[in-house]
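Appendix B: complex inputs.
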Amino acid sequence: MASITASDAAIDHRDVMVCVAASELRDGDVVFVGIGLPSLACNLARAMHAPNLQLIYESGTVGTRPQRIPLSIGDPALVTGALMVAPMADVFQLILQRGHIDVGFLGAAQIDRAGNINTTIVGRYDAPKVRLPGSGGAAEIAAHAKRVIVVTSLDKRAFPERVDFITSPGRRVTRVITDKCIFDRDAGRHELVLSALYAGVSVDEVRAGVGWDLRVAAPLSEVAPPSPSMLTALRRLRKA
Amino acid sequence: MASITASDAAIDHRDVMVCVAASELRDGDVVFVGIGLPSLACNLARAMHAPNLQLIYESGTVGTRPQRIPLSIGDPALVTGALMVAPMADVFQLILQRGHIDVGFLGAAQIDRAGNINTTIVGRYDAPKVRLPGSGGAAEIAAHAKRVIVVTSLDKRAFPERVDFITSPGRRVTRVITDKCIFDRDAGRHELVLSALYAGVSVDEVRAGVGWDLRVAAPLSEVAPPSPSMLTALRRLRKA
Amino acid sequence: MHDAIAAHVHDGDTIAIEGFTHLICFAAAHEIIRQRRRNLTLCRLTPDLVADQMIAAGCVKRLVFSWAGNPGAGSLHAFRRAVEKKERPLEIEEYSHFGMVARFSAGAAGLPFWPLRTYEDTSLPQVNDRIRRVTCPFTGETLAAVPALTPDVTIVHAQRADRAGNAQVWGITGVQKEAAFAAKRVVVVVEELVDEDVIRSDPNRTLIPGMIVNAVVHEPWGAHPSYVQGYYDRDNAFYVEWEEISKDAARLDQYLDEFVFGLRDRHEYVDRLPQLRERLTPEPHRCDGVDYGF
Amino acid sequence: MHDAIAAHVHDGDTIAIEGFTHLICFAAAHEIIRQRRRNLTLCRLTPDLVADQMIAAGCVKRLVFSWAGNPGAGSLHAFRRAVEKKERPLEIEEYSHFGMVARFSAGAAGLPFWPLRTYEDTSLPQVNDRIRRVTCPFTGETLAAVPALTPDVTIVHAQRADRAGNAQVWGITGVQKEAAFAAKRVVVVVEELVDEDVIRSDPNRTLIPGMIVNAVVHEPWGAHPSYVQGYYDRDNAFYVEWEEISKDAARLDQYLDEFVFGLRDRHEYVDRLPQLRERLTPEPHRCDGVDYGF
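Resulting structure:
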């Protein structure tokens, strides 16, 4: 991750977030993918450096080739032209629990120092301030994917010392990609560590966005700007 | 079961066995059926009094309409035109273990006083005199069908006091149909009891064919001879 | 539909209306609302708008679920109002998706529990005492376990069935098979009622055999605003619109008055939405058949 | 086939060649015999002639099974001679069908065991200590349990697959899916190698996804004398004939010399049996396709 010049700083950090997420994927990876940014990043990777990426959605669609951007993970466009549609019992047992998923892509309402993810409630479970949707398949993805990558915007409420509720365990989280920086998980210390900054973002700015005494990797990298071809591909996908 | 006249005694007792077995089935019953005599009896019942009999084979074929008499329970003729082909995991879990089978039809190399069935070995397990095929799905059929009917020829070696090996438990066996007589299982005493004789067969002849001190129901019935139309239907099926 | 719901869904029942995004039987839910069923325990992996409507209509005492949202579009606000503001009593019993799949699988298999490798280091077992541990008799390791779920009635939507209820489904099958086999009674709702010979021509497509089915209802467009692969597309515009309807309790009530209580049946519902056919009829995308000869 | 067996089946391996009556891959078994693999643990619900041949050829150290016969035609005499007369060492490990299905299911699901309601009041647990008991953490009742079976390699035959191994099957599917997912390596053998677009046209027919497949072999008639629905009928005459061949050890050896060791591959096997096409080609019985549009 080389440093970048000032002229690149105009690139939208949310675009960088998607491009960084796409770059995490290797050609041939079997990826369990949630809707939204993870889905966009996977399709971007497929258009760029990973044409043989295998996308699996929890609806059971394997090797999808959607002709439109799906609104939900059960969209009919994920079925038409897929390689396989598996019953959900098979998705969770034969594919996830059996260990066939290389990368799991998750979002998070909250993620804490240890990498634990909350998508269930804000506040107390029996008297929540905000009721979120809950686990869906996230608890299984987090437990069984070989690498778990979380994509979410940096925000102090979203990065507490301890989440209000552990929906999905953090033990397999390897990387958290935000719109300002990247955290890697130090598996020895069970802790998210700041590993790279986006252009124009300071360490203090990141510290202000997390609820614990943040450790910073040395040396700290700057995230390379996405290539123009990747940004073009991303914009094309967004329009599709 | 009324008494029959001497002129009927010329009917082959093996034909009677199949007809009696067919008569056990009620229209609409869901029957789990093995190959051979049980299959023949089921198709006979369907042709006569039970057109809505649902036949299920352990190969997963449901509601079969075979265009030829199948040699094996996995014959392709059981698939073509079936209502459903289920994976075996579903046959054993969702259909059998869930309790959807009304009648299970089994054969037996040995069946004992308590109704326990042996299709595994004659002699000791680690040094068998005769190695039989083993359970297949019989242990499951015997455990889960609401009524288990056994069809087998009467023979002293086949009807011991205790089988050499319990392949399938006898607790749900309700009736044993042989080529000489019918036994009912007395659920209170856990014991097969002679309940009906075929024409021309004596109680002593049956006693000679079983290896225990046989109890005889009072009154003891004689098996009504199959109707001419049933015998005609049976012969037509055999020729098909 | 009226008769099937009257006969098979009773006050206090535990019911499953399954379908993962695909094949969610709104027609049945609307009929349940119309018949003013009460104290239902509603079981669904993804409660979806169908649960939001039933909660708002006061049918639901307890929700058993794993993901309660309006995917890609927002929240289930009637559900949230019940849980966050306690505006009406609603018990919740929560799992992950596989936890729900496992509960239906156990029920369908005639087993009392199902083992799974989820929930280690999570908070769910602390708030749900139906998530327990079981020890493997071979390796000695402990796994999670959930109990069988055996609804009084499961309602599944399918592309087609014959009059006996032998139902064929393609596209996303979700947990429909397990939910049906787990239930004591099964209602199958279909887009097309077909001759038995159509079913028999392709027996590998049969997901639910007639022998476990108690009622078959022919109800075209019965899954709208959900979708039926090959029959009509998902009404994503309505899912997005629901965010605004559902946010406002009065507007939600008005929706129910207009589209549920104010209509007699699905036929009137389709008539009230005249552009459905133009907006949602799919481009054909037929596959070839296969050969079952021997 | 030569290369797939050489690469994926090693001496001492635990292998599954599945297929319930349907889709039994004799071509793979013959190649294993030709390559003189030894000390295999062979896992099959119904060992069938394929196991009788491999036992006679000295490939098999241990047989894991649930029904060892020649259905409707007689016995597996090489198997019986080994067990009854101890003519060659053969360990056996025996279950009921569901016991085997459950072992594959556990292996496929990444679980250490599978619970089932069989074996109460039977003798099998006395001769097989891999049938144990597990206690339900909800009801307290005890059930039977069997351990996961995870073969080193599973070989499945299918009607068709693409080059990546996405395999489609219709007719009896048996326990093929579970056996494949349970294995560390998977070899798929097909009657037809098709373009990926054929698979993608009907994704619900895909039983085994390419991501778990290590080798794809295109081998027409590879399942004979077993059958392939829509491609060729079961050779019942040969199954009946096997009773006589298998009864006589010398005649069985002669069969192996002539039809396995004496031939290079499946192509030569089909040439040696010139009437196969006339005798076993099916009457067409095609179903219609379905619509995957949205």
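Chain C touches chain A through 53 residues (CB under 8 Å).
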